[in-house]
């Protein structure tokens, strides 16, 4: 998978400041524990940390490509291009020769053959920096759905870039500044494409290419979700969905290292696991290994189990599904002590670079991936199915789909203050959060492609579908990427295959929900492969710990924060409101404490972030 970092400076030589480039590259060690390298050229430095997955011996980076005996292009690459073997054959037919079996070299040669149009030929998840030595131009490219992250930070004479903000912030010219614009984004769930919270920093938007040359930086889209008429009948649509998902899963089982599947026993993960087991069976490999997460009850220590007795519904369903497809299942069981461990929580914050997240669910995901990494290097996951097929309750609530706000904000109300009750209650008004949400929603609606003549119900649901795929899904993909790559685990997401996404996006809502249930079309497509218990199982959210000991441990940390007059987050707090909120937490029963958890855990996380990253508040 890998992590990348680099620096382009047209008025100086980054090679003369190698310590800065090395510091940037070193921050990506968790993403690439197997090897490292830095390539220096005139006005450019490309850093790389490698997680070896394909062509273990030959895929060393940064990688160069030559023309007429001279270096023509250099790449620092993160991700996987799943159709690289077919692309390599095409390029060989066009006269290119290869010295490795890696997909990285295929991407380089594709650029030399097709120029910037090469992005249209790539199928996969990727984020990379490519330096053209002939034109002295840098290209920053991100995959269509934004599965792999890529950030950049323009400077006075060039740009800094990296897989994660920490790579950029390791450079002396970058500062961890939080302006009102960043604070607005941090306090809402609008997830503006390209926004990076830190002042001056941006993300390469999904399906976009950033071009950097002397005195110029531009960003252009090479892919957007298209609106097309859907002419297939129901049976053809069902068959086409299964075929596209089957091809996506099969293509993503290719690896030169151990591969497994995440398995909750729900429809999404079960579909991926079933098709992965099917794809691997002819090769004679050992049974597919599957993993789920569970929680030990209060007073019990955590332990791994493989018989479905992990005290959660997920483990039981997952074990039964594994038996059905001939896979091996193991449940990683966590307890309050593990989830509240300061080292684990610090690792999660360091992985995310921001105080965003889903409380204990981020820590449990990190610990799950850490345990999986001891057995496997690549994992398949079901991310994207809910957003694509309509799995969330909001899709089936007409008031939510007609509300003039993001559907996931509807339940709380568009004007509800986001963030913990401990913060200054005047912040939402001072930052104009209501206006910010309204403007963000208007921008998101304006980006929805229009199909002329589409009936109103289908047009409305296309809009909802687009909002989830372009605003909500990227948050989950970033979370999955950061938690997995923090331990050097590559997670692949077959439901985000762009051919599958394009097809299903254009299926009318009446066909996607033909029987009134969530993800009806996916259930129909996977009916031949899954047991009835999975097909009829109601969607359940990612599990969260219910042990009161976890909340008590966090309450202790909150008390320490409230006693610390120098806590950085106090710059955002109102003392009177904070004291009242803390009194509520202090007096809460165990059940009430769990309900309050997200608010006060968020405060702790913001404080840790401001302290550890030395965040400057800018007016």
TrEMBL record:
Reaction(s) catalysed by this chain, per the record, are: L-aspartate + L-glutamine + ATP + H2O = L-asparagine + L-glutamate + AMP + diphosphate + H(+)
Q: Which Pfam families match?
A: Asn_synthase, GATase_7
This protein's pathway? Amino-acid biosynthesis; L-asparagine biosynthesis; L-asparagine from L-aspartate (L-Gln route): step 1/1
Name the Gene Ontology molecular function terms of this record: asparagine synthase (glutamine-hydrolyzing) activity; ATP binding
UniProt keyword terms in alphabetical order: Amino-acid biosynthesis, Asparagine biosynthesis, ATP-binding, Glutamine amidotransferase, Ligase, Nucleotide-binding
Question: The Glutamine amidotransferase type-2 domain covers which part of the protein?
Answer: 2-215
Question: What is the protein name stated in its UniProt record?
Answer: asparagine synthase (glutamine-hydrolyzing)
Q: Which gene encodes it?
A: sioC
